Amino acid sequence: MTSKLTEKQKAALWQQRRAASYQASCRLAGYLTSEPVIEAEQAEERLASLRRQYGG
User: Residue 26 and residue 34: Cα distance in Å, rounded?
Assistant: First the structure.
């Protein structure tokens, strides 16, 4: 039995498909795209900085 997707799930699925479509389109056009690379240490530092800035 299948259940219907929630609006949040539909939005997430649409975003995933949109991103995949965009990447495929870029590849066809000859553009090279790459994911930004960030190390765990850099991510932790950035999170700490944002928490200090926004009081979280």
Answer: 11
Terminal alpha carbon distance of the chain: 42
Contact present, 14 and 7 (Cβ < 8 Å): no
Q: What is the pLDDT of residue 49?
A: 95
Q: State the residue for tokens 């479509």.
A: 21
Q: Which of 45, 15, 48 is nearest to 23 (CA)?
A: 15
22-32 tens-digit pLDDT: 989 998 999 88
> If DSSP states are collapsed to H, E and C, what string results for the chain?
CCCCCCHHHHHHHHHHHHHHHHHHHHHHHCCCCCCCCCCHHHHHHHHHHHHHHHCC
